[in-house]
Design brief:
With 216 residues, this protein is mostly helical. The protein is 77% helix and 0% strand. The protein is globular, with a radius of gyration of 17 Å. Bound molecules: (4-amino-2-methylpyrimidin-5-yl)methyl dihydrogen phosphate (MP5). The site of (4-amino-2-methylpyrimidin-5-yl)methyl dihydrogen phosphate has 12 residues, from helix 4, helix 5, helix 7 and helix 10.
Length: 216
């Protein structure tokens, strides 16, 4: 079995926990309160913004064949930020209405620490796992959301065909990086895969629970 499929099989119980999260099921069924969804919008806007320096920091470590793709991601993330801005204007959410929540702050620090300290294959593992998590998560929402919901453009963004193809490309590239990795690096990649999955669960949990920090 190739690396990505092997990891997805290994973290299956966590992955299922992520896909069964009340935020996703509730969004699919139209039961998530507006303010809860607004929390996710504000927080994910900050996360996507932070994804830009993350991919930019990967460029110096990347093989030359990935330079163009990674630099193209900066424009892709900007386009995604514009989607948030458009939806926020339509529904009346102030995207800069809150600082990063605890889980979001931690996830962003994890991204940056990974970009600077881990190997390229390890950092690419985080990249793939986060994108695959969003594709699978929004696919859960897609299977049942009211087509008239204001959240459909988000669903289409991550659960649509173009994103599916992009995730398949990331998977192919990560499998190639894994083929070239030694045992030690492979163990690191597996750990990063699992950690990213846990951060994704923590992110849905934060969206459902609110933006305040623990104990504050
Ligand atoms: C993604 C995201 C997907 N937007 N937010 C979280 C918490 N995880 C993954 O990344 P992108 O850049 O929106 O495709």
């Amino acid at each position: 079995m190739r690396f990505c499929q092997e990891q997805l099989a290994r973290v299956r119980p966590l992955w299922e926990k992520m896909l069964g999260h009340q935020f996703l099921i509730g969004t699919r069924d139209g039961k998530v309160p507006f303010e809860t969804f607004a929390t996710w919008m504000r927080q994910d806007y900050l996360f996507v913004e932070a994804a830009i320096p993350f991919v930019a920091a990967l460029i110096p470590k990347a093989p030359e064949a990935h330079w163009e793709f990674l630099s193209g991601m900066i424009a892709a993330f900007r386009k995604e930020l514009a989607l948030f801005e458009e939806r926020a204007a339509v529904v009346g959410v102030h995207l800069r209405g809150a600082p990063p929540a605890f889980a979001n702050h931690a996830y962003i620090q994890f991204l940056m620490a990974t970009a600077y300290r881990a190997s390229y294959a390890e950092a690419f593992t985080v990249f793939y796992a986060a994108e695959k998590a969003y594709h699978d998560s929004w696919s859960v929402v897609k299977a049942g959301i009211d087509p008239g919901s204001p959240w459909v453009p988000f669903v289409e963004n991550w659960a649509g065909e173009a994103f599916a193809q992009y995730v398949a490309f990331l998977e192919q590239e990560l499998d190639l990086l894994a083929e070239k990795a030694g045992q030690r690096e492979l163990a690191g990649m597996a750990e990063y895969f699992e950690l990213t999955t846990k951060y994704e669960i923590a992110f849905w949990e934060m969206a459902a629970a609110g933006e305040t920090w623990p104990g504050i």
